[in-house]
Amino acid sequence: MTTGTFTIDEQLQKDAETLFNNLGITVSDAISRFFRQAIREQAVPFSPVENAETEEKYKGTLTLPAELIAQAKAARAEAIKGRESEYMTEEEIDALVEKSRNENREEKIQARKEFCEIVRSIQADSVKNGTDKMTMDEIDAIIAEVRAEMRAEKAAGIEC
Questions:
Q1: Do 109 and 136 fall within a single domain?
Q2: What is the C-alpha to C-alpha distance for residues 7 and 29, in angstroms, rounded to an integer?
Q3: Could you report the per-residue pLDDT of 50-106, keeping only the tens digit for each?
Q4: I need a labelling partner for 125 at 20 to 30 A (CA). Which of 4, 27, 63, 145 fits?
């Protein structure tokens, strides 16, 4: 452990201490968590803003995961190929972000559909095999039998 010194507004410190106290953590714990999250995400875990208008516009914006940031950087590099300026307009950036959100949304929808299909398949197999009518006691008994068999196999040197 080490000790650090920070200079902040006195009222800000009091408000933060009150908030963190209500949350059941210390200021030191909050700062440590902030550092851990920044290191884990390799980014500041909030969106820095310059003025109240910008802050209001982006209120509620989430910090993007590192993978999404990498994808955005790659998309930006592709988008500026052959251009006079390496800088994109705000509209171009907004379009890329929206495209990325839509692509992620489609992936999530597809994954959810696949998950639901798997669950329906398991449910259909359960009905077909009659296991959909088993009680919890019956299920627990089968689990106990399988675990006992696995322990016996392990003791005999037979492992999967």
A1: no
A2: 17
A3: 555 655 654 555 455 566 667 767 776 776 676 665 555 667 667 777 777 777 777
A4: 145
- Tokens standing for 92? 């171009």
* Confidence (pTM): 0.32
**Are 125 and 138 contained in the same domain?**
no
Looking at the fold, whether 81 and 124 belong to one and the same domain comes out as yes
| Amino acid 62: pLDDT | 47
Q: How far apart are CA 11 and CA 148, in angstroms?
A: 62
Answer with the one of 32, 63, 94 that is the final residue of a domain: 63
Percent helix, strand, coil in the chain, to 5, is: 70, 0, 30
- Whether residue 64 contacts residue 72, with contact meaning beta carbons closer than 8 Å, is answered with yes
pLDDT exceeds 80 at position 45: no
Total of domains in the chain: 3
Residue 49: is its pLDDT beyond 60? no
| 66: alpha, beta or left? (left if phi > 0; alpha if psi -120 to 50) | alpha
**Cα 24 to Cα 53: distance, rounded to the nearest angstrom:** 32
Domain assignment of residue 157, given as a range: 131-160
